[in-house]
């Protein structure tokens, strides 16, 4: 029981580490389960600091997963986006947005090497000391410090412009939805940043743009075409938090089609839209009961 209690106290944190390193809900779930099995196999009272030990174990598992995942993602059809984490939204002023779990930032992390990504997540997000990260990636603490520094510079350079004001973010999402559903081209052009980027993840399973769509006019037309693919009589639209920020989930209850939208918002306008339509990426969601 003591082993179970100690593990359960860390479970949420372990899953958070795993998801940010892998970008996959399924991989994060598997990593937590594997960590539990290894924890169970330990002799009682062998670990002085369960939090540090378990963090190292799950980070190693995820670091190993990244190598094979990169090979799979290089063969992926179209843009690869993380599996979304969807939850009911809270009060508008509840919290600032959690940048470390946003789909746009996780997409930037895909451009890092596995060692850079792991070092950045563990140090900058979870405040793990460099010597402990060194055990995970098999480098010296100084080398890990350099990995994290390189990753940090790239993230700062490539991370999307975004607001941390939840109310501003939600208002932009609402305006986007009204314009799309109303076929309001002018409204779309007004809420979309002139340099907005749209990424669609269909994985070759359903129709989706194979390359990012750039610019507000092209994105507006693409969004309207996507909306027309849903039957208004059977389509349900849910306002949900997607990776910590207000987003949208559209479900066609008759055709079984679904799309999860994540947004980046800056100064009242949408700067990035990530649309996940690959059914494999949505399998973990209980879509009929959202």
TrEMBL record:
<feature type="domain" description="RNA polymerase sigma-70 region 2">
    <location>
        <begin position="7"/>
        <end position="69"/>
    </location>
</feature>
<comment type="similarity">
    <text>Belongs to the sigma-70 factor family. ECF subfamily.</text>
</comment>
<dbReference type="InterPro" id="IPR013325">
    <property type="entry name" value="RNA_pol_sigma_r2"/>
</dbReference>
<feature type="domain" description="RNA polymerase sigma factor 70 region 4 type 2">
    <location>
        <begin position="104"/>
        <end position="154"/>
    </location>
</feature>
<dbReference type="Pfam" id="PF08281">
    <property type="entry name" value="Sigma70_r4_2"/>
</dbReference>
<dbReference type="InterPro" id="IPR037401">
    <property type="entry name" value="SnoaL-like"/>
</dbReference>
<protein>
    <submittedName>
        <fullName>RNA polymerase sigma factor SigJ</fullName>
    </submittedName>
</protein>
<dbReference type="InterPro" id="IPR013249">
    <property type="entry name" value="RNA_pol_sigma70_r4_t2"/>
</dbReference>
<dbReference type="Pfam" id="PF12680">
    <property type="entry name" value="SnoaL_2"/>
</dbReference>
<feature type="domain" description="SnoaL-like">
    <location>
        <begin position="173"/>
        <end position="272"/>
    </location>
</feature>
<dbReference type="InterPro" id="IPR013324">
    <property type="entry name" value="RNA_pol_sigma_r3/r4-like"/>
</dbReference>
<keyword id="KW-0805">Transcription regulation</keyword>
<dbReference type="Pfam" id="PF04542">
    <property type="entry name" value="Sigma70_r2"/>
</dbReference>
<dbReference type="InterPro" id="IPR007627">
    <property type="entry name" value="RNA_pol_sigma70_r2"/>
</dbReference>
<dbReference type="InterPro" id="IPR052704">
    <property type="entry name" value="ECF_Sigma-70_Domain"/>
</dbReference>
<comment type="subunit">
    <text>Interacts transiently with the RNA polymerase catalytic core formed by RpoA, RpoB, RpoC and RpoZ (2 alpha, 1 beta, 1 beta' and 1 omega subunit) to form the RNA polymerase holoenzyme that can initiate transcription.</text>
</comment>
<dbReference type="InterPro" id="IPR014284">
    <property type="entry name" value="RNA_pol_sigma-70_dom"/>
</dbReference>
<keyword id="KW-0804">Transcription</keyword>
<keyword id="KW-0731">Sigma factor</keyword>
<dbReference type="InterPro" id="IPR032710">
    <property type="entry name" value="NTF2-like_dom_sf"/>
</dbReference>
<dbReference type="InterPro" id="IPR036388">
    <property type="entry name" value="WH-like_DNA-bd_sf"/>
</dbReference>
